[in-house]
Design brief:
The protein is mainly beta. Helix content is 5%, strand content 54%. It contains 4 helices and 54 strands. The longest helix is centred in the first third of the chain and has 17 residues.
């Protein structure tokens, strides 16, 4: 187990270093449908008839698929598979007499604890129950995660539940290395000793730790079963793809045999798995959008390179699959030029330089880019004659009438442009450019000779040019429209809660506020009871937060500020906690079911029904005024059980329970009248040789002792320095014992204990061995 924890720690450190470069990415960039992979290990144990013992462990793998996730959503949901192996141990500190129907202990196989040898003075057969359960599970789980908490803080909190196919097999350690029962060892344990001391002796001194026998109802092949489970996981998302988790999982076995012991009660067993884990998130690759990419077909010039003596260049093309002129770029010798684009028709005119001129036309959309290059050579030495005189007639006249000034300022994002154009036939002889880009999105009315267009304005300068051309010449007018953004102070209004003051009996409250005119450089501050808090989310002009409330009045303030001013809104929330209903404890002794009873049996079973008692420590169980601690109490059903030893005469049994709301008690009297029996003959023992506190020169000494009322060697417990010695001779007729005992250097403790059905006795001596000189 320790090695597994060290391995998990090293893996966590490696993962932190490996993924540290990804820490700057927000976890909210994850796309729905991601995959998770995890490894985990920890402690496994049972809640069952047999008390859990140390040493249990488990380890496993998980593989999950996200089914629901949206950035900012309160919850996300995953479907996850789990592969788990676990081992659990159990060991009881009290005698278990419910073995008559236990086929592993009643003689149906090889071990028979129903009757002890007569010399040990044991009436009813018993064992100290123990088990080792091996379990393998393949499970499917649904995982619900607090998504907003993870996105805001990095902390993980998940609840999950599912069902698994479980293989399990339980073995018990009820035979010594020779395959024999622990009769002598079990009978020598005083049941009134502290339970921790009993369990320590069982695990360290008596039991050999070899779980050699299949438990009641089991074979070597084990069993299969469907087992539902629930669990909780907490952790921290160190990077968008790596998290460290800790969790607890509870599995409902649906059987009372998981611990190999089914005859104490009819309650099904549970098993637990508390673990640390490493979890990786494998993002889903975004789907690439598909669609037609742009296509450019050059109409003029038809060839490249194209030679011409004319310094007036012309490029015409057909461009498909673009949305607007903004998707088109055209350069001549590396410099952008104006162009006209309408529908699919592209036209640009430009002046050529002597020699080589490179024209580059590029079109783009979300699905791709097309690019063509045309080389136009203005031949060197060509005589450039002045243009011929224009034909007789009047050229066009252009005048922009709205706006009427050459430089016009406005705070609006659009402007209706009007221009008067005389001397043209139709719209085809007009060019409108906005910030260097041609557009055909205008109307020309031949009747009024007026151009109209709605121009979208960008912040700052917007250069607008209107040019008209006819066979007799051309004319152009320009205007500059400056869009100035108005800066106004913000406005804040809290909309949730919608009443002030707001009263609630819930210890948390949702806050929502709308913030208008904040601007890109504005700031928002959030205060709860006078203290600034960053635990809020600002989405557009909406602020959302969830706060924890203290009893009484809670003051919430939302404040916004920009360069033009500030504003704030506030609300008072009064938290009035609901006082819990008083639930004083209750106790009723149900067995015996009468306040006074008489019995001839020295043992009595006590049962009681309890309500509103959650801890065993809140129960005061007393027999004849002496408090007992080794009773069994299960808060799940409020059932208390215990077997007691009665003294001759009247016995007072009382149970008192207490909780924060009060106390209750119940009591019964049991009169025990024993039947007359034979005269008791308790045994005696006396070590006659060597003498107490004697010294020895040899590494061994002869041990002699005399006993009374002892008839068999198995009634004698001989120990040297705490180690049990069985190599001795005993005469049952004379009651004399003799043995050769090996000594260690220094003090040696020699102890003999004798036991029969009427009692026990012991004697001891100390011998000092000086060792070789």
């Amino acid at each position: 187990m320790k090695a597994m924890i060290r391995t998990s720690t090293l893996l966590a450190l490696w993962a932190l270093l490996h993924f540290s470069a990804a820490a700057q990415f927000s976890a909210t960039t994850t796309l729905p449908g991601y995959t998770t992979f995890g490894i985990n290990g920890g402690w496994s144990y049972q809640t069952s008839d047999v008390r859990a013992a140390p040493g249990g462990f488990g380890f496993g793998l998980t593989l999950g698929k996200n089914l629901y996730y949206q950035p900012g959503a309160p919850l996300s949901f995953d479907l996850r598979g789990r592969l788990l192996y676990a081992r659990q141990f159990g060991l009881d500190h009290f005698r278990s007499f419910d073995i008559d129907n236990n086929e592993a202990l009643n003689g149906d196989r090889s071990l028979d604890y129903t009757s002890y040898p007569a010399g040990l003075g044991v009436g009813d057969g018993f064992v100290f129950q123990n088990h080792r359960t091996d379990l393998g599970e393949l499970a499917l789980e649904g995982v619900l995660t607090l998504n907003q908490l993870k996105e805001r803080t990095g902390f993980l909190a998940s609840l999950y539940g599912g069902v698994g196919l479980d293989w399990y097999r339980t073995r018990i350690d009820q035979a010594n290395p020779f395959g024999l029962e622990y009769f002598t060892e079990y009978s020598s344990i005083d049941p009134s000793r502290p339970k921790a001391s009993i369990r320590k002796d069982l695990s360290n001194t008596i039991l050999d730790g070899v779980y050699e026998s299949n438990a009641d109802g089991f074979t070597n092949s084990g069993k299969l079963g469907l087992m539902p489970s629930v669990g909780i996981e907490l952790g921290y998302q160190f990077t968008p793809t790596f998290a460290l988790t800790a969790g607890h999982r509870l599995t409902f076995s649906g059987t009372n045999l998981l611990d190999g012991h089914q005859w104490e009660d009819n309650q099904n067993d549970l098993y637990h798995y508390t673990s640390l884990g490493l979890q990786w998130t494998i993002p889903r690759k975004p789907r690439r959008a598909t669609g037609p990419s742009p296509q450019i077909k050059v109409l003029l010039p038809a060839t490249t390179p194209y030679r011409t003596p004319d310094p007036n260049g012309l490029l015409r093309a057909k461009i498909l699959h673009v949305n607007s002129p903004a998707d088109i770029q055209c350069t001549v010798n590396g410099r952008p030029v104006n162009f006209d684009f309408f529908s699919t028709e592209f036209t640009t005119r430009f002046f050529l330089e002597l020699g080589k001129n490179e024209v580059v036309l590029t079109a783009s959309n979300p699905y791709g880019t097309d690019r063509v290059v045309r080389t136009i050579i203005l031949e060197t030495g060509a005589i450039i004659n002045p243009p011929p005189p224009p034909p007789s007639g009047a050229g066009p006249q252009v005048r922009i009438v709205d706006p009427s000034r050459e430089t016009y300022r406005t705070e609006r994002d659009r402007h209706d442009l009007r221009a008067s154009i005389q001397g043209i036939r139709d719209k085809s002889e007009v060019e409108l450019t906005v910030n260097g880009r041609g557009t055909r999105d205008f109307i020309y009315d031949n009747r009024t000779r007026e151009l109209r267009a709605t121009i979208s304005l960008r912040p700052g300068d917007n250069r607008i040019s209107v040019r008209a051309t006819n066979p007799y010449g051309s004319d152009r007018d320009e205007v500059n429209i400056v869009r100035e953004e108005e800066i106004r102070g913000p406005s804040v209004r809290i909309v949730v809660p919608n009443d002030d003051p707001h009263r609630t009996d819930f210890d948390q409250a949702d806050i929502r506020a709308t913030i208008e005119r904040l601007g890109n450089n504005g700031t928002v501050r959030f205060f709860v009871n006078g203290r600034a808090s960053n635990d809020f989310r600002l989405n557009g002009n909406t602020l959302d937060a969830r706060i924890s409330l203290r009893p009484g009045e809670n003051q919430v303030v939302v404040r916004a500020e920009n360069s033009a001013g500030n504003d704030q809104d506030e609300v008072a929330i009064i938290f009035e906690p609901v006082r819990p209903t008083s639930q004083p404890p209750k106790v009723r002794i149900t067995r015996p079911d009468r306040p006074n009873s008489t019995t001839s049996s020295q043992r009595a079973d006590i049962e009681a029904s309890l309500e509103y008692v959650s801890r065993k420590e809140d129960i005061d169980f007393r027999l004849n005024g002496q408090r007992l601690y080794d009773f069994d109490y299960r808060p799940q059903n409020g059932r208390l059980t215990h077997r007691i030893e009665l003294r001759e005469g009247n016995n007072r049994i009382s149970i008192e329970v207490v909780n924060a709301d009060g106390r209750d008690q119940d009591a019964v009297d049991i009169r025990y009248l024993s039947e007359p029996g034979p005269v008791k003959q308790p045994p005696t023992v006396e070590i006659t040789e060597p003498a107490n506190n004697s010294a020895a020169d040899q590494p061994s000494v002869i041990l002699r002792a005399e006993t009374r009322h002892i008839g068999q060697a198995n009634q004698i417990d001989l120990r040297v320095n705490g180690r049990r010695i069985t190599d001795f001779t005993f005469n049952g007729g004379s009651g004399k014992l003799q043995a050769t005992v090996s000594l260690k250097s220094g003090d040696n403790d020699i102890r003999i204990k004798v036991t029969n059905s009427d009692g026990s006795d012991e004697d001891q001596v100390k011998v000092r061995y000086r060792g070789a000189q």
